[in-house]
Amino acid sequence: MQSPRIGSFEVSSIPCEVWSRIFSAILLQLKSTSVEFYLACLDLASISSFLRGVVQRNSVFWTGIRLDHTTSEYSIQNIIDRSRGQALDAVLELGACNTLPLERVWEIFGPLLYRCRSFAVRIHDAESLESLACALDHAPLDRLTSLSFSVHSTIANSFPLPGSFDRFGHSLPSLRTLRITRIPFVWITSQSLRGLTSLTIIDLPWSLMWSEWQAIATNASGMKNLCVRNVGCKDFPSDLATMLVFPSLEELDFSFGLTCSSGGLLLRRCSAPLLATLRFHGNEAGHIVALSFTMADLSTIRHLVLSGVSNDAFCYFLFSRLCRLENLEVLQGDSAILDSILAGDVKLGQRSPPEGPVCPQLSSLHVSEASPTDVRNFIVCRGSVVRAIDRVVFGVESTRRFVGSEDLQWLRERAIIEFWYENDNQSS
Predict the structure, then answer these.
(1) Which of 69, 103, 185, 223 is deepest in the core (most CB within 10 A)?
(2) Closest-CA residue to 67 (of 21, 121, 115, 14)
(3) Helix H or strand E segment including 149
(4) Kind and range of the H or E element at 163?
(5) How far apart are the first and last CA of the chain?
């Protein structure tokens, strides 16, 4: 069969690698656009066997599948046929699923779910949740390693959870990554999650009990990453010696809003001997609670990210324990935080000068709002250079305001300076 012609050239005259880059650039650039565009790109594979081979070998088609409740059964079958047995990563946007009978939801999406390695679903109404529950109740998802569920904020408290979701949650033997947003899954404490390595829980409409946190820590003992944002906690034992032990945890991302200050109780009770990265997003009430940290494992932290932290006592308490910290990122209120660390230096120096500065191993600093003067004062304490910082990344505001400053020039002479522009880093 002769290769089809586009304009004045044959399709096969362009190398496979070039076609792959073209497809990848289009799909990655338009990843958040309509489902129809994705399917149109996939239909290009029907032009010739040459393009079918290009599409089949290009992973971007199978890791960026975007579907919604209007996707036809023909389109689903087209995806399955073109993928030729590859594991799929799909994002499903379920809107007004009440326009489809429940059995049709299963007939359309069921065959695709069998093939999914990663599956993310966004639900916009109670009917769509019931429809999906019907589909998942029949699906043997042995391949599924990553699962994400999110519910629109306006319906998070307005419907009961279908019983089929409970059954579905106990049959995920290969699951490694789980993300839950505003949906009351009771099976996050299930023993079927023993293989879980990453758990994200965001904006739950109710507080988790101490027994539920214990079940998570026990059943997911191999978990390396835990993200808890705006999740309340209750029924914690009064005995401060009772701890939640995460023996394999390496990264903790933690925050609680003004309505979830009780979340600080969780942070007080965590024991994670391998913890290396801590991301903390707080508020004034949360700082007060977190001041009574019992985490002896803070000494293992090498990478710290702070946002919305403004309490001097909290900063002093936190940084006085970070003896191995190497990388610090401050996303909000960074000038105040740097001042708090400096205050900690002075206090430590007055109490026990041989101890030296707080965070003596800190070598990389990323700030969003602080000026070069703030950073220079942070590096130089009591008249001496006390930090071996060899990399400083400034936010876009600092880029605009302080490019010609004397302190910036001082930093250039002793460190690698970069300026951060929203989604990328550009070296100065």
Answers:
(1) 223
(2) 121
(3) strand 146-151
(4) helix 163-169
(5) 54
- Greatest CA separation found in the chain? 84
Residue 276 near residue 251, CB atoms below 8 Å: yes
Query: Tokens 């032009």 label which residue?
Result: 47
Is the Cβ–Cβ distance between 121 and 149 less than 8 Å?
yes
Answer yes or no: is 122 within a domain.
Answer: no
Q: How many domains does the chain have?
A: 2
186 lies in some domain: no
Rg (CA), the chain: 26
Residue 259: exposed, middle, or buried by beta-carbon count in 10 A (0-12, 13-18, 19+)?
exposed
Return per-residue pLDDT of the chain as tens, 428 residues. 444 444 445 667 777 777 777 777 766 665 544 566 667 767 766 777 777 777 777 777 777 677 776 777 777 887 887 777 777 888 877 765 555 565 666 677 777 777 888 888 887 766 666 666 666 666 667 788 888 888 776 655 555 566 666 666 666 778 899 898 887 665 665 666 788 899 998 887 677 788 888 888 888 889 999 998 887 777 777 666 677 888 999 999 887 654 455 555 666 677 888 989 988 876 554 444 444 444 556 788 899 888 776 666 666 667 777 778 899 888 776 667 777 676 655 554 444 433 456 677 888 988 887 888 888 888 887 566 667 888 888 876 666 677 677 888 888 888 888 876 544 444 44
Task: Quote the strand ranges of 185-324, DSSP E.
Answer: 198-202, 208-209, 225-229, 233-234, 244-245, 251-255, 270-271, 277-281, 303-307
Distance CA 31, CA 88 (A): 16
And the tokens for 305?
Answer: 């990210």
Take residue 63 and report the two structure tokens written for it.
């890791």
Residue where a domain terminates, one of 27, 44, 63: 63
DSSP per-residue codes, 116-145: EEEEEEEE-SHHHHHHHHHHHTT---TT--
Tell me the C-alpha distance between 302 and 13, whole Å: 52
Q: Which residue, chain included where needed, has tokens 């019983």?
A: 163
Domain presence at residue 93 = no
Reported pTM: 0.79
Looking at the DSSP bridge assignments, the partners of residue 208 are: 233
